[in-house]
């Protein structure tokens, strides 16, 4: 066929013949992972209606020794997205617990309110991170710097792992002026067609505020993704944060699990 690649090696030197034979027998190289990822995010923006339930668990520990305070909470809500937008459905049990905690705080401002604490995690911005995961990841890619791609194993299958660095510029000017040391990485595991499977973010930093107050922090997030119709969802998100400085210490963990229905 005219224009076809010719793999005959009769008149070539031995070394060139070997190289050409290898090129002829090796499969065509797949597109790079970053390009495949961006293509997958473009096709998984999600317009189809869906229903789901979201369970959120929180755990926080503030202070040390006798001054330490520890709290935890759990609540589930329903989510529904359609042509009218994203709707939240609070069950009667959750509303009753929230009401009881509000009444308790009227009598005692120090009364624990675990359900109210969880409810703060149900902001539209937080929820859209999970229900519109493709758009969220696309925004993340604009803030990080691509480093490399390698083969990895995820859930027993061979996948591609993309690694990015998280620059200090992801923080606001106000926060950056206090940071002296900063290191951040973002790893994303993708399928052969570029569909995100899981991600891991790790950020460490330290600095000094008001000259004498030193501090350090560590933020970590693990996420698992899934596809529902034409929509990429974040099915599980676990965030951990540790921070110390000025004689105070904070440790928290927030886990969110999304389960589709209907």
Shape: flat
Low-confidence stretches: 1-30
The total count of helices amounts to: 7
Task: Compute the separation of the termini in Å.
Answer: 53 Å
For the largest beta-sheet, the strand count, sense and barrel status come to: 10 strands, antiparallel
Reading side by side through the largest sheet, how are the strands ordered? 3-2-1-10-9-8-7-6-5-4
Computed Rg: 25 Å
- The oligomerization state is single chain
Count of β-strands: 10
Mean pLDDT: 85
Offer a concise description of the structure.
This protein is α+β, with helices and mostly antiparallel strands.
Q: Care to describe what's here?
A:
This protein is α+β, with helices and mostly antiparallel strands and 262 residues long. The protein has 7 helices and 10 strands. It has one domain (33-261). The chain has helices at 14-25, 33-43, 92-107, 114-119, 124-131, 133-143, 173-176, and strands spanning 50-62, 69-82, 85-90, 145-154, 157-165, 179-190, 196-209, 213-228, 231-245, 248-261. Strand 7 and strand 8 form a beta hairpin. Helix 2 (33-43) packs antiparallel against helix 6. The chain is flat and about 60 Å long.
Which structural traits does this protein have?
single chain, 262 residues, alpha+beta, ten-stranded antiparallel beta sheet, flat
């Amino acid at each position: 066929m005219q224009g076809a690649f010719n793999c005959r090696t009769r008149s070539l030197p031995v070394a060139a013949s070997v190289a050409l034979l290898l090129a002829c027998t090796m499969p065509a190289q797949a597109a790079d992972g970053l390009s495949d990822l961006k293509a997958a995010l473009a096709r998984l923006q999600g317009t189809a209606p869906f229903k789901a339930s979201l369970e959120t668990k929180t755990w926080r520990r503030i202070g040390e020794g006798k001054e330490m305070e520890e709290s935890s909470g759990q609540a589930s809500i329903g989510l529904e997205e359609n042509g009218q937008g994203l709707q939240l459905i609070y069950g009667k049990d959750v509303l009753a617990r929230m009401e009881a905690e509000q009444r308790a705080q009227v009598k005692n401002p120090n009364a624990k309110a675990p359900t109210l604490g969880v409810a703060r995690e149900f902001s539209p911005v937080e929820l859209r991170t999970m229900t519109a995961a493709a758009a969220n990841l696309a925004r993340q890619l604009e803030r990080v710097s691509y480093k490399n791609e390698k083969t990895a194993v995820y859930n027993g299958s061979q996948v591609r792992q993309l690694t990015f660095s998280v620059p200090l510029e992801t923080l606001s000017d106000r926060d950056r002026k206090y940071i002296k040391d900063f290191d951040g990485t973002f790893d994303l595991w993708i399928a052969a067609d570029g569909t995100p499977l899981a991600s891991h973010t790790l950020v460490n930093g330290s600095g000094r505020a008001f000259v004498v107050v030193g501090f350090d922090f560590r933020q970590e997030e693990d996420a698992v993704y899934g596809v529902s119709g034409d929509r990429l969802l974040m099915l599980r998100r676990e965030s951990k944060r540790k921070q110390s400085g000025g004689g105070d210490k904070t440790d928290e963990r927030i886990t969110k699990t999304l389960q589709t229905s209907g």
